[in-house]
């Protein structure tokens, strides 16, 4: 059975390096037998998490929809920017709200539990966002995801892509291809929907 893989860029910015990297990962995944989709967090606008808001109004519908979508996946590839050596608020907020969803259509759900997760990042800096990935890794592990060891960081991202959106650097390209391979292999062996 084909694996369902969702690619999640953690930036909404026009010209985002991480959206470019997510697009390239989606292209590579689409060459395999996986069923791949790219998520856009602008389709799921959410307020900043506030416990009082949750108590008064419950978990917003967009968080429930996001949880439902993630719960249907075998694998997730998170492509995250690095903000101050850590996870950017857009992505953390979406994950935090999603982690508060307990039921979807009356059924108990833990959207990240047993989900196979791969991590990638791009940054204009020389570390390629790799410190942010450590933060994302901790968050995903806390939620019970199986985070694969292989990851891909693209440094100097302003010059990291050619005009077709392909990775310009051989090392970065090989890292991304290896990450996609490992994500698919692990998803096939650990799929929570098998
Ligand atoms: C608040 C803030 C903090 C940042 N901190 C870091 C950082 O710690 N390390 C880094 O490599 N880049 C840092 N950057 C630069 C971002 O990685 C860069 O703007 C990147 O292009 C953002 O991702 P995007 O292009 O996908 O939107 C920071 C940017 C912002 C706005």
SSE blueprint and pairings:
Blueprint: E1 4-9, H1 17-30, E2 35-38, H2 51-57, H3 61-71, E3 75-79, H4 89-99, E4 103-104, E5 107-108, E6 116-122, H5 130-142, E7 146-154, H6 170-190
Parallel strand pairs: 1-2, 1-3, 3-6, 6-7
Antiparallel strand pairs: 4-5
The chain binds flavin mononucleotide.
The site of flavin mononucleotide (FMN) has 16 residues, from helix 1.
Describe this structure in words.
It is built from 6 helices and 7 strands, in the order βαβααβαβββαβα. By secondary structure, the chain is α/β, with parallel strands linked by helices. It has a single domain (4-190), classed as Rossmann fold (3-Layer(aba) Sandwich). It has a 5-stranded parallel sheet, sandwiched between helices. The protein has a two-stranded antiparallel sheet with strand order 4-5. The longest helix has 21 residues, at 170-190. The radius of gyration is 16 Å and the shape is globular. Bound molecules: flavin mononucleotide (FMN). Flavin mononucleotide binds next to helix 1.
Give a quick set of tags describing it.
single chain, 194 residues, Rossmann fold, five-stranded parallel β-sheet, 7 strands, binds flavin mononucleotide
- Report strand order across the widest sheet: 2-1-3-6-7
The total domain count is 1
Q: How much beta, percentage-wise?
A: 15-25%
Characterize the largest beta sheet: strand count, sense, and whether it forms a barrel.
Answer: 5 strands, parallel
If you consult CATH, what is the topology? Answer: Rossmann fold
List low-pLDDT spans: none
Q: Identify the CATH architecture.
A: 3-Layer(aba) Sandwich
Query: Which cofactor or ligand species appear?
Result: flavin mononucleotide
Q: How helix-rich are the residues, as a percent range?
A: 25-40%
| SSE succession | EHEHHEHEEEHEH
Report Rg.
16 Å
By secondary-structure content and strand pairing, the structural class works out as alpha/beta
Name of the level-1 CATH class: Alpha Beta
Shape: globular
**Total DSSP E strands:** 7
Number of distinct helices: 6
Q: Could you name the CATH homologous superfamily?
A: Flavodoxin domain
Terminal CA distance: 8 Å
Mean pLDDT: 96
């Amino acid at each position: 059975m084909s694996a369902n893989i969702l690619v999640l860029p953690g930036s909404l910015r026009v010209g985002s390096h991480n959206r470019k990297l997510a697009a390239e990962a989606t292209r590579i995944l689409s060459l395999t037998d996986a069923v791949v989709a790219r998520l856009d967090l602008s389709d799921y606008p959410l307020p900043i998490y506030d416990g009082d808001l949750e108590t008064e109004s419950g978990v917003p519908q967009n968080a429930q929809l996001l949880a439902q979508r993630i719960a249907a996946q075998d694998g997730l590839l998170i492509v995250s920017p690095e903000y101050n050596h850590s996870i950017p608020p857009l992505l953390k907020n979406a994950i935090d709200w999603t982690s508060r969803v307990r039921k979807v259509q009356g059924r108990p759900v833990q959207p990240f539990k047993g989900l196979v997760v791969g991590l990638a990042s791009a940054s204009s800096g020389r570390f390629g966002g790799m410190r942010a990935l450590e933060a994302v890794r901790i968050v995903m592990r806390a939620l019970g995801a199986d985070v694969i060891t292989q990851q891909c960081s693209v440094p100097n991202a302003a010059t990291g892509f050619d005009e077709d959106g392909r990775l310009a650097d051989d090392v970065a390209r090989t890292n991304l291809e290896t990450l996609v391979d490992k994500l698919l292999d692990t998803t096939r062996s650990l799929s929570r929907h098998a």
